């Protein structure tokens, strides 16, 4: 049994505190709006006097600014702060220095599940910061999810986390465009769903449609073969997809931006390359 103070009791922090309690740990809780601690206190948590009350602070708030606002000018000598909030890698590195200046150590984290997934099989969290410090708390943090350690640089947890979220948001928005197109044609979302599920699976596997892996290999090699499916063809094809949405009366902000990106790739002289070449334009805005 370990002691932990959970700082930030939104949907995520509340579920984390509950999960620590269920695992038998001694849990203190703190939130800016104090009343959000009440249900957890009813379940056996202790109400912390301040956000810095405890040796191990597990923080889950809307931003890193919220951590600064919550801890204020408290000393953090010998304390470990594990922050699972969203931010940018540069913000996390700045926060690591801020915590160190107050005598503490910051472990940064990006948790890859919504509240119901916390503590469930398949949940994982990217962690970065000093490994020996993380290892000391691995038993407790393991109650939330699997620990995926990505390196000592405190910014790295957010590099991995934001990479995953970019894929999450953009691919699911594409799925919503596809469903809107279907609905406009009178097709029920459930009738289209099996095809979407097949495509999502195939893109991640090792087969001929396994483009997650194919593009990673092409990017590593810096070679983007396009004989079978050139960017000339794909830019024209994407134009047809966008026109299909327009015909259907569906909005086109994201696909339209993608069309302009593909056209730029061709204009830059790489129309004979394959899809992977788009990354060379993405890297140079
Ligand atoms: P929010 O991101 O809405 O965060 C709410 C918490 O932040 C509350 O405790 C709130 O306090 C606190 N807060 C906001 N501003 C301040 C401030 N200036 N000072 C002190 N506390 C502040 O809710 P979630 O719980 O959903 O998310 C927490 C973090 O987890 C976020 O960074 C989010 O990106 C990340 N995350 C969320 C997931 C999800 O599915 N919800 C999944 C994975 C990660 P108060 O109650 O007083 O307003």
TrEMBL record:
One of its GO terms (molecular function) is oxidoreductase activity. This is NAD(P)-dependent oxidoreductase. Residues 153-284 form the NADPH-dependent reductive aminase-like C-terminal domain. Keywords: Oxidoreductase. InterPro entries: 6PGD_dom2 (IPR013328), 6PGDH_NADP-bd (IPR006115), HIBADH-related (IPR015815), HIBADH-related_NP60_sf (IPR051265), NAD(P)-bd_dom_sf (IPR036291), RedAm-like_C (IPR048666). The keyword Oxidoreductase applies. The keyword Oxidoreductase applies. Pfam families: NAD_binding_2 (PF03446), RedAm-like_C (PF21761). Residues 3-149 form the 6-phosphogluconate dehydrogenase NADP-binding domain. It comes from Nonomuraea zeae.
